[in-house]
Specification:
heterodimer, A: 169 residues, alpha/beta, Beta Polymerase, domain 2, two-stranded parallel ribbon, 7 strands, 22% helix, elongated, B: 400 residues, mainly alpha, 2 domains, 3-stranded antiparallel sheet, globular
């Protein structure tokens, strides 16, 4: 099954299973990208994992995206699944408004999501509901902002230990 | 023995020791902290803390032009940085739709397999070192030096190589590089054979590593294991075979797998992978196609210096590349390569600007290190050290 066929097949499956909660999708290079409603993400991932015919048993990665320009859906989380037997790879995306950062945690489906979700909480401030241990992981616990969000500059603006006079930063 | 029974306290009165293993502990080869709850020598609970060398690469990458991100990837898994470099180049090539000539692919395969060997040399000798077999670490480790000499000949650097460019290699292998590779290909199998026969059936080594830090295939998949650690647990997933990149489909090699997922299997899988890598390099050298070593992508590939001084277009492209003003298409792309530790993935979103809109690294170490507490709980402290070195957790990749 090539990427287009896989995309059509999965769209059909998700459409019949989840109706309007399956929003749509596109093909990005060699990946079918499927967009679903945030509130149904657990059901969708469980359906993709547990349906024997689909068998997406491996969570390759997940990551957050912040798009301040995209009004009404500023934040997104993408999940990349892999069916290792058939070698199918897909990407599932959910979108949400900036104020509404609660995302259902997928740690109950894949234990590997534990640290991945902690990392995205650390970077973007997603509140993963149902996560067993949602703490910062790479940055220090005292940090009071979420550094990967676009409004934060590369360097901490509050630093006063650098003399920039010479180099015209 | 019964005279000491009064010393063993009943369950309710038991007191546990808290042991800080790390952050800087000589036995943990990097900055890892594990707070262990110990019942004597037995680990009851482990709580790892990571992030001591977090350098915010994903944030920095959003502010760098595409060709300036390669040095960041060097510093992920610094034991096999050429694989990271090539993975990044291939991601950008996928985004811009650039077809790389066969010769560049084959040169890349040689470089990548050499660095896989270097990575596995480090891991296997350190497993030996941690079990008390210092000889391997001192003797076999010099092979890594030979590999770095080849890298030095090809790109000028040894550890953080920044090797290759978007579109191919920055230069062809020199005569000296070919000669060094030839000598290496004769020398290395001898050393590997010797090291293997020294360790593999050694009674002490086997007693020490078999059933040490085991994980089942099912748990390994649930924890997102990839690479040699997953294969040691019996699952034959290898990105080179599943999604061939850089002409890996042209080569004939097998994927060694283990059965128990313990330290011994992880060691043996790495040893066998070195033999496979040797065979791949041999095939690549034998079948090396003639032709260009880079694609014709003037917008991304630096022109010859003579052309810059004599041709207008070359000067323009040179200026644009150095200033990081390249036109990239919009889109999002994921590309993964088989790194020394597993599937190293690059998820790149481009909005058409000079730097990525979002770049996410799928770092195999970060993902499988979270299984570490489960793997060491109930075991001995000395086994925990061995489990960590056999998982080949590299701090740079863990913390990015």
């Amino acid at each position: 099954m090539n990427t287009t066929e896989l995309f059509d097949h999965l769209s059909e499956k998700l459409k019949s299973q989840f109706g309007d909660d399956f929003i749509g999708g596109e093909i990005q290079y060699d990946f079918p990208v499927l967009i679903v409603e945030k509130k149904r993400i657990i059901d969708v991932l469980q359906f993709l994992k547990n349906t024997p015919e689909l068998n997406f048993n491996f969570l390759t990665t997940l990551c957050g995206i912040h798009m301040p320009e995209n009004k009404g859906a500023e934040l997104a989380v993408m999940y990349q699944l892999h069916n290792m037997v058939e070698n199918w790879r897909i990407r599932i995306k959910i979108f949400m408004e900036d104020g509404d950062t609660k995302v259902p945690s997928v740690t109950s489906i894949w234990p590997t999501a534990n640290w991945m979700e902690r990392q995205e909480y650390d970077f973007f401030g997603f509140k993963f509901v149902g996560h067993p241990d949602l703490r910062r992981i790479l940055n220090m616990d005292e940090m009071n902002y979420f550094p990967m969000r676009k409004e934060y500059p590369l360097e901490d603006g509050s630093r006063d230990d650098k003399n920039d006079k010479m180099f015209g930063r | 023995m019964s005279t000491n029974n009064h010393l063993i306290k009943p369950e309710a009165e038991k007191e546990y020791n808290i042991l800080n293993l790390g952050p800087t502990h000589p036995a943990t080869h990097g900055i890892f902290q594990n707070i262990l709850k110990m019942d004597g020598e037995i680990i009851m609970h482990a709580d790892p803390t990571v992030g001591y060398i977090h350098r915010a690469f994903e944030k920095i990458a959003e502010h760098r032009p595409y060709n300036q991100i390669t040095p960041l990837t060097d510093r992920l898994n610094y034991c096999s940085s050429p694989i990271n470099n090539m993975g990044w180049h291939m991601t950008v090539e996928k985004l811009i739709g650039c077809e790389v000539p066969k010769r560049a692919d084959y040169l890349r395969v040689i470089i990548m397999e050499l660095s896989r060997i270097a990575d596995h040399v480090i891991c296997t000798t350190i497993i030996g070192q941690d079990t008390g077999a210092t000889t391997g670490f001192l003797y076999f480790f010099q092979m890594r030096e030979k590999i770095y000499e080849i890298f030095e000949e090809v790109c000028g650097a040894r550890l953080t190589t920044n090797i290759g460019r978007v579109g191919g290699m920055e230069r062809d292998f020199s005569e000296v590089a070919w000669a060094k590779l030839k000598i290496f290909m004769v020398e290395f199998p001898k050393f590997l054979k010797e090291f293997q026969s020294l360790i593999e059936r050694n009674r002490i080594f086997m007693d020490r590593t078999i059933d040490c830090g085991p994980i089942t295939g099912e748990r390994a998949l649930a924890y997102g294991f990839t690479g040699p650690n997953l294969r040691a647990a019996g699952i034959d997933y290898d990105v080179r075979v599943a999604n061939p990149y850089s002409s890996y489909q042209d080569f004939d090699f097998s994927i060694p797998i283990g059965s128990n997922g313990d330290t011994y299997d992880r060691f043996m899988v790495r040893i066998q992978e070195m033999w496979e890598s040797i065979s791949i390099i041999k095939q690549a050298v034998d079948k090396m196609p003639k032709g260009e070593f880079h694609a014709d992508v003037p917008e991304f590939y630096l022109p010859n210096k003579e052309d810059v001084y004599s041709k207008m277009e070359a000067l323009i492209y040179h200026f644009k590349i150095v200033m990081g003003e390249m036109d990239v298409p919009k889109g999002e792309v994921y590309h993964s390569v088989e790194g020394g530790n597993g599937e190293l993935g690059f998820y790149l979103i481009s909005d058409g600007n000079r730097s990525p809109f979002r770049l996410h690294f799928r770092r195999p170490c970060f993902i499988y290190y979270q299984a570490y507490p489960e793997m060491i709980t109930g075991g001995l402290l000395s086994d925990a050290i061995l489990t960590m070195s056999s998982m080949n957790v590299i701090a740079g990749e863990l913390d990015a």
